[in-house]
Amino acid sequence: MASAPVKDIAVSILYDGESHEIQTYTNEYRSLMMLIYDKIYTEDFGECLGMGKCGTCLIEIISNCGGLSYYERNEDITLLRAGHTDKKFRLSCQILVDRHLDGLKVKVLT
Ligand code: FES
C-alpha cells in the first residue's frame, strides 16, 4: 500500500484581512488558483477556470523564495489589459504547485 504524499510545501495566503498557512505537495493541485479556491472560499475567483483570460485570480507576490514554475496561457496580455505591469502581480492560475512554492507568501486581490 502506497503512503500518502508528504505535504512539504508551505504557502502563506493573505485574503480578506486573514492569513492562511497552507501545506501541500507537488501536483496536489493543477495550479495555485485551484489550491486557493479549494482551501479558502474566495468569491468570484478563477472564473475562466485557469485559461488566463478573466483576471479574477489575481494575486500579489509578497515574498518568494525562488523562481516559480508557470504555464504561459494569456497571462501577460491579461495583466497588461488590467494595467498590471509590475512582476509582483500574477495570475494564480498560471502558477504550478511544486517545490518552488515553498515559502511563498501572496495576497489575493480579487
Ligand atoms: S482563472 Fe481566469 S485568469 Fe486565472
Write up what this structure looks like.
The structure is a single chain. By secondary structure, the protein is of the alpha+beta class. The protein has one domain (9-108): Roll (Ubiquitin-like (UB roll)). Helix content is 14%, strand content 25%. The chain has helices at residues 32-39, 75-81, and strands spanning 9-15, 18-24, 58-63, 89-91, 104-108. It has a 5-stranded mixed β-sheet, with helices on one face. A hairpin with a 2-residue loop joins β1 (9-15) and β2 (18-24). The longest helix is centred in the N-terminal third of the chain and has 8 residues, at 32-39. The radius of gyration is 13 Å and the shape is globular. The chain starts with 8 loop residues before the first strand and ends with a strand. FE2/S2 (inorganic) cluster binds at residues 33, 46-48, 50-57, 78, 91, 93. FE2/S2 (inorganic) cluster is lined by residues 33, 46-48, 50-57, 78, 91, 93.
CATH class: Alpha Beta
> What is the CATH third-level topology name?
Ubiquitin-like (UB roll)
Q: Which kinds of small molecule does this entry bind, naming each only once?
A: FE2/S2 (inorganic) cluster
Strands, total number: 5
Q: End-to-end span in angstroms?
A: 42 Å
Number of domains: 1
The chain-level mean pLDDT equals 93
Biggest β-sheet: strands ordered side by side in the sheet = 2-1-5-3-4
What's the architecture, going by CATH?
Answer: Roll
Could you give the order of the helices and strands? EEHEHEE
Indicate the radius of gyration in whole angstroms. 13 Å
**Count of helices?**
2
The CATH homologous superfamily: Beta-grasp domain
Class by helix and strand content?
alpha+beta
